[in-house]
Design a protein that fits this description.
The protein is an alpha/beta fold. The protein is built from 11 helices and 9 strands.
Length: 262
């Protein structure tokens, strides 16, 4: 799977073992304008049509930037209707990326700001280089994060830390982001993509139905009571035992061999 010929804001290619690389390449800073949103949507169209895709790695080919945020020039020329349509298109694309049908990993080098951080937040996991920076500076424009930032960030770092980040609009360095749980893994500078791909290869060897169930159960923990969450967990584990890949996993363990997961 590759992007159409000619200049494109996004390209994508298989990386083996069910991994699809989506590469942001809209210089100078990967502003999340219409070209990048449309390119991301086309890449996800291809991923949706390929049952072999289990894991998506989102990375940048623009030196020094993951994604610097929304396309301010586009917003400056938009009326209320066009602004709403732009926000809707971005939210739709990020919502598709967040779908538990696959595991998605953001490989972040440099700034991930505004919509760029919201793109990373939509991913299941985030791997960042040592010089990465994260922020939601929309208050400096008289706005608030509008593509999931106010909802996904508190779920990762808690209300107090999320408010500190959003109310000040400050940039969070990589070490702090790792310490507060904003990123999943901290890599050496320039190694985020390599580490993300290694993580993807590791995840690709495990049971896809089990991984999807883990994501659903953890998400439910944030939206339901403990009693309801425990009941949902029991329902999922019983489904995996009865009709998932648990029997293969258990049999492989007893036989001391690698399981043959889908």
């Amino acid at each position: 799977m590759t992007s159409p010929s000619g200049p494109a804001a996004v390209s994508w290619e298989p990386a083996g073992q069910g991994v699809l690389r989506i590469i942001l390449q809209r210089p100078p800073a990967n502003a999340l304008g219409v070209p990048l949103i449309e390119g991301l949507s086309r890449a996800l169209d291809d991923a949706s049509g390929d049952q072999a895709v289990k894991i998506i790695v989102v990375e940048s080919a623009v030196p020094g930037f993951f994604a610097a945020g929304a396309d301010i020039k586009h917003m400056a020329g938009a009326d209320a209707e066009a602004f709403a349509a732009y926000g809707y298109a971005l939210r739709q694309a990020l919502g598709r990326l967040a779908d538990p049908a696959w595991i998605s990993i953001a490989a972040v080098e440099g700034p991930a700001l505004g919509g760029g951080l919201e793109l990373a937040l939509a991913c299941t996991l985030r791997v960042a280089g040592a010089q990465a920076r994260f922020g939601l500076p929309e208050v400096k424009l008289g706005l608030i994060p509008g593509a999931g930032g106010t909802q996904r960030l508190p779920r990762l770092v808690g209300r107090g830390r999320a408010l500190d980040i959003m109310l000040t609009g400050r940039q969070v360095p990589a070490e702090e982001a790792f310490a507060i749980g904003l990123i999943s893994r901290l890599a050496a500078q320039g190694q985020a993509a390599a580490e993300a791909l290694a993580l993807a290869a590791e995840l690709g060897q495990l049971s896809r139905p089990a991984q999807q169930a883990v994501i659903r159960a953890v998400d439910a923990a944030q939206e339901t009571s403990l009693a309801d969450g425990l009941a949902y967990e029991a329902e999922l584990v019983n489904e995996l035992f009865d009709g998932g890949e648990a029997k293969e996993g258990i049999t492989a363990f007893v036989e001391k061999r690698r399981p043959n997961f889908s």
